[in-house]
Amino acid sequence: MAFEKSVKGERQTLLPDDFLADLPVVDETLSIEDDFDKKLSELKKQLQIALELEHSTIPPYLCALYSIKPGTNLMPVEIIKSVVLEEMLHMIMVANLINAVGGKPRIGAKEQGEDRDFVPNYPAHLPGNVDPSLTINLECFSKKSIQTFWRIEHPSSDRNLPTEFSASQYGSIGEFYEALLKNIITLEAAAKAKGRSIFHKNPDKQVKPEHYYGAGGKLFSVENLEDAIKVIKEIVGQGEGTLGSIFSTPYREGDPKYLIFGPDVEEYAHYFRFKEVFYERFYAVDDSAHRDSPNKGLPTGERFNVDWDAVYKMKPNPTLADYKKNMPGVYPKAREFSLTYSALLNNINDACNGNPDVLSKGIPLMYQLKYQAIELMNIPIGNGLMAGPTFEYIQ
Amino acid sequence: MEANNKNTKTFLQISVHLTGYDEMDLLGTGMLESYYDVVIHENNLHLVSEFLTTSEKILGDLPNINDKIRQQLIDDVKFNSLTSNIIMMWYMGTWNGNVVSPQSYIQGLVWKAADTHPPGAKQPGYGSWENPPITIHPPVAVKPAAKAETLTTV
Amino acid sequence: MENTEYDVIIVGSGIAGCVMAKTLTQAGKKVLLLEAGLSAGINLDKNGNFYNYVDYLNTYYKANAKVPNSPYPNIKDAPSPNVLDIQATPSVDKGYYVQEGELPFASDFLRGPGGTTLHWLGSTPRMLPNDFQMKTNYNVAVDWPITYNELVPYYEMAELEIGVAGDASVQPNANEYTKGYEFPMKKIPQSYLDQKFMALVDKVNKGEHPVQIDKKKVTIGLTSTPQGRNAVPNEKYPYIDVMWNAEQQKLVMTKHMYWSGKDRAFKELDKKEKYQYLPVGAVWDPNTGQRCEGNASCVPICPVQAKYNALKSLAKADESKLTIKTQSVASKVLHNGEKTQITGVVYKTYAFGDDAIEYKEVIATAKIYVLAANAIENAKILLASEAANSSKQVGCNLMDHLCLLTWGLLPEKGYPFRGPGSTTNISSFRDTDTRKDHSAWICPVDNWGWGWPKFSPGSDVQDAVKEKKFGKELRNHLSDVLPRQLLLHYECEQLPNKDNRVSIKDEYRDALGNHRPVIKYNVSDYEIKAFAAAKAINDQLFKAAGIKDFTKYGEKDENGKFKNPDIVTPPRSKEIYNFWGAGHIVGTHRMGKDADKSVVDKNLCTWDHNNLYLVGCGNMPTLGTSNPTLTMLALTFKAAEAILKKI
Ligand SMILES: Cc1cc2nc3c(=O)[nH]c(=O)nc-3n(C[C@H](O)[C@H](O)[C@H](O)COP(=O)(O)OP(=O)(O)OC[C@H]3O[C@@H](n4cnc5c(N)ncnc54)[C@H](O)[C@@H]3O)c2cc1C
Ligand code: SF4
C-alpha cells in the first residue's frame, strides 16, 4: 500500500491512491464517556501487541544474521542487517505511539510481570493473531528461513478488513496496522468531536531522532494524529512495500507504481530484499514488483554471491532449560547471552519510559549480544549442529 | 567443526591449560580445527604426535597438571617452541609471526585478556570507550584445575 | 594530446584534490582529476565500493604488521613509502624513499584514491594565532603571509567539510574563534583512560609535588581534541554547505541552500524543514558510520568510515562536470619559454592487460592546473618539470612533527585499546615563551596502549611466553598489564630548514620511470632541546602520578641494529632520545610574501606560473603544534576561491 524509497539519501514515501481510500466514518454511537474509554484502553492493548509483533521478528532475524560465517555472504548480511535495524526502529516508534496516547510501553518490564509473554517461546506464532499459519523459529540462515522471512513481511492480498479489531485474525502485518490505524483515526475523531484528543502532549517520553542514529531510517516521535499516521506508514512501507496491490490489482504494463527499483533507489521494502537474497540477484531497474508482470515480480538484475553452506548450523530454538539439563558446559555461555539480551530489553524499556537518553547506552549491549551469539554458534553440540543464542528473559 | 577426533580433542584440552581459557571459550572462537591444521602442517608430524601423546598423559594427572606442563612441554627443549607457538596462536592468531587468517586475528584471546576487542573488528559501539568495558570479569584465580573439564557436549 | 578542454586539471585525489574537485565542479567548472592509484579504490558505485573496502579490511586483518599502509595495495607504478622500510641512513635499497640525510625521514603517505586520509587519525585542532608569526613573536623561522584571522572563515569551511566533532569553547584559542562558534558535532567522548589520566594529573597539579620547570610550578592542562569522526550532531550548528557566490566572488557557508546531488544544483531548503547537521556516513551506505563505533583502528582503516576520508568529499562533486582518470600518474607539467603559463600536464597510465601491463603517456590541457599530490610528490613533479622554482625553494623545508614517545603503567586500569586513537591532549605547552629557545609541543594521550613503540599487545604476549608463563598465570598477567598501559607522545614542532629537502636524481626511478624522492633530513638543536624539556616534564609527572615508567630509547634488535634509527643526543649530553614520525609531511613548497623566498603566494598560486596552483601541506611555512590537515584544507578552500575568481 505504501512503499518507501530513498533516492540519493532523500527519502520519500510514495503512497498509492488507495491507501486508506475509505477513511473511516466516525462512529456516531461512540459515547465519549464509557465506550470511548473502553475503546481507548483496547487501543492501548493493541498497540502493546504491535510492540510485541515488532519485537517478535527480531530474534529470528538475528539468528539468521549471526549464523552467517564471518567474511562470507556480504550482500545477504547487509540486507538482513538493514532489515533488523529497521525492525528495532519500528519497535521504538510503536513505543512512541503508545506514549503518545497515554499508554505505557512494556518491554523488559512486561517480562517481570505476571503476563510474561513479551518474548515469544520459539517456535512461535506472530503475536496479535497475524497469519496464524506461520511459525517462526530461531534458526540459521537458509533458503527456508529466508522464505519464512518473506512470509513475515508478506503483503496481504485480502483487502477485506475485519471490523472488530481485537478478536480478529490478520492476513499480514500490514493488515494489522491498517486496522490499528483505522481505530486510531476513529477514536481521535470521536475525541475531537468532544473537543478533546487521544494524544497527550508528553514530549519527554518520546524517543527522538537525536537519541537514535544510523541505519534503519528516520525515527519519528509522535504527538498528534498526523505523526501517528506517518509512523504507521513508515512501518508498513518499510516492511511490505506495495502491500496488497501487487496481488490484488491487475497488472498494467509500465505502471510506474510497480517500477520501484533502480540504481537511484537505495532501499525498498523488506519483502523485496528477502526475494533478492533468495534468488541471489538484485532487482533490475525495469523489473516490476507486480506478480503478473513479465518478470513475475521477481528480481532479474545483477547476480550476487550467496553461499548457503557458509553457515553455522545452529540447532533450532535453543533453550536455557535444555542446555542446563543436557549440555551444562554450554549453559554458562547461554546464560551470559540471555543476561545481555535481558539487559538490552530493560535498557529499551527504560528509554521508552521517560529516559530516552539511555538508549545510546544500549548500543554496546547490542554489539555484545552479537559477539556472544556468534561464540555460541561456534560451539559444536553433536550431530553436526551448533549451540545458539537463547533469547530468554532472565534476571 | 566437531571436536570428535581424538587428537583434536587432546589438542583442545591441552590448549585449555596452556591458555588459561576454558573449553567453551576456545571452541567459541571457532578456530580449533584450523589451528589444529596449522599445528599438523607446520610441524614435523612425528613431533606433533609425540606432543599429543605427552599431552594426553599430562591430562591424565590433573592435580599436577601445571607442574607437568612446565616440566614436559615448556622446559623440555623438544616441545618448547611448539608449545610457545601454540600459545601465541591462541592469543595472537599468528604462527611464527604470520597471521593464520583474518578470523584468527579477530579471535585472538589477547583481546579478551585485555578486556577489549581486536582493532578493526567486533566494535563495541559509540561512546563505549567512555566507560569501563562491559566485559570486565574478576581475575581468574591461579590454582591447579581440580577436576577434569571435559567436553560434555560431544 | 587530448582535445577535451577542461577548466581545471587536478593531480591527486587526496583531501586537497577531492575538496578542490568538489568545490570547483559544484561551481560549474569542468574538471579533470588525475589519480595515480588503482581504479578499484574510487568506485563510486556503492556495491563495488563496499567490496573494495572489504578487501582493504581483510588485507588489514591478514597483515602481520598492522602499519598505516597495511590495508592498501602498494603499486610498483605508483609506490608508497612504508614505515617498515625505514632504516638507518643512508639507504637506497629499501622501499620508496632514497634516504641520504643524517637521519631517516620516518613518515609515510598513501598513494591511492582518497590518499592519506584513508589512514589518517583525524585529529583536527586549529593552529594558534602565534603560530603564524614565529619570526615576529619568537625570532625563529618565518612569518606566514597571512594571519590566523584571515584564515578563520576558511577554517570554518574546513571544519564543515571534514565534519569536526569537538567542543570549541575549551580549545586553547577559544576566544579567537568567531563569537558563539560551534563545531558541526558535539565532542567525541573522552576515553575512560583519559579520565583516569586527567584525574591523576589533576592530583599532581594540586598536590605537593607539582611539575616544575626551572623550579617554577607549571600546571598541566588537558583539552578534548577536535576530530574528524562522527559524533552526536550539534543542534546549534547552522551551516549546510560551502557554496561559490558568483556575485560576491567568494565562497560562503550556506544556512538555507544545500547541494542537491540529484539535481546537481544548490537548492533552497524547504522552509518547513528544520535543518540539522547530518553526519556523513560511509561512501557505500550513508547509514553506516553515522557514529564512531569504537573500532579503535582509525589508523590504518576505519571499518565503518565514521572517520572522515577524502572519498566522502569526492562523492559530493558534480559528476557531470568531473572526469576522473585513475591509474594515471602525473610526471610533469609543461611550460612555455617565458614560463609564465603552464601549458599541459604529462601523465603516464598503466592498465592491467591480459598478460602484461600496458603503459601510455598522455598530455592533458586546461586553463588552470592544481597539484594536490602531497608535499613530497608535488615537489617531485615540480622539480622534474623545472617549474615554479625561481626561488630555489622547491623541495626545501621538509618538516614533520617529531614525536617523543613515553610509556608507562598506570597505577589502576584505564582499559586502553578502545575508542579512537586519541581523544584528549596536553595543550598547555603549545605556545609558551620557550619557543624562542626550543620547539613547542602538543601531547596527545594515546588510547591504544603501547602499540606504537612496542607493538603491544603482541610483544607483551611474546615476552610473557618467553618468560615461560602459560595458562591462568599468563592470562592474569596480561589482564593485569595490558589494561594499565599508558602512552603519551610529545609532538614537537620542527622548524623549516632549507637543508631538509626532497630532491630527485635520475638514477633513482620507479617502475614507470618517475623519480623516487631523494630525501635529506635531520633535526636541529632547537628540536632536540625540546625533547629534553618534554622528557623532564614527563618524568616528574610520571613519578608524582605513580605511573611506572617503561620508556626506553635506543633499543636494539637481535642483529644489534637500532629498532628505531631516529636517535639524537642533545649537545653536551649523554642522553639519547628516539623520535617517531607523525605523518605530518609539510613544507616543500612554502607560501610567502616574497617571490624570491617562497614558491606560492598567499592565494597558493605559484609565483612563476599564473595558472599553476599548489595545494597540500607543502604550502605551510611553519608547522605549529597542530596536526596540519585542517589548516591545509582551509588553505585549499582559499585556493579554490582564488581559482574561481580567476575563471
Ligand atoms: C599515520 C598518519 C596519521 C595522520 N594523522 C593525522 C591527523 O590526525 N591529523 C592531521 O591533520 N593529519 C594527519 N595526518 C596527515 C594527513 O594524512 C595528510 O596531511 C593529508 O592526508 C594530506 O592530504 P593530501 O591531499 O595533501 O595528500 P595525500 O592524501 O597524500 O593525497 C595525494 C593524492 O595524490 C595522488 N598522487 C600522488 N602522486 C601522484 C601523481 N604523480 N599523479 C597522480 N596522482 C598522484 C595520491 O595517490 C593521493 O591520492 C596523518 C598522516 C599519517 C601518515
Ligand atoms: S574508533 Fe573506530 S569507528 Fe571510530 S573512527 Fe576510529 S576506526 Fe572508525
From TrEMBL, chain A:
Coiled-coil ranges per the record?
Answer: none
Biological source species: Chitinophaga qingshengii
Alphabetized Pfam families for the sequence? Ferritin-like
Which ranges carry the Iminophenyl-pyruvate dimer synthase domain?
47-278
What protein name does the entry list? Ferritin-like protein
Q: Which domain of life is it from?
A: Bacteria
Cite the InterPro entries for this sequence. Answer: Ferritin-like, Ferritin-like_SF, VioB/RebD_dom
TrEMBL record, chain B:
Name of the protein in its database record: Gluconate 2-dehydrogenase subunit 3 family protein
What does the record give as the organism's lineage? Bacteria, Pseudomonadati, Bacteroidota, Chitinophagia, Chitinophagales
TrEMBL record, chain C:
Kindly give the PANTHER family that the UniProt entry links to this protein: PYRANOSE 2-OXIDASE
Question: Of which family is this protein a member?
Answer: Belongs to the GMC oxidoreductase family.
**The protein's name in its UniProt record:** GMC family oxidoreductase
Q: Where is the Glucose-methanol-choline oxidoreductase N-terminal domain?
A: 289-403
> Per the database record, which ranges form the Glucose-methanol-choline oxidoreductase C-terminal domain?
496-635
Query: Which species?
Result: Chitinophaga qingshengii
Taxonomic lineage of the native organism: Bacteria, Pseudomonadati, Bacteroidota, Chitinophagia, Chitinophagales
Please name the Gene3D superfamilies in this protein's record: FAD/NAD(P)-binding domain
The UniProt entry, under Pfam families, shows: GMC_oxred_C, GMC_oxred_N, NAD_binding_8
Question: Which cofactors?
Answer: FAD
Keywords, sorted A to Z = FAD, Flavoprotein, Oxidoreductase
- Tell me which InterPro entries the record gives: FAD/NAD-bd_sf (IPR036188), GMC_OxRdtase_N (IPR000172), GMC_OxRtase_C (IPR007867), P2Ox-like (IPR051473)
Residue ranges annotated as transmembrane are none
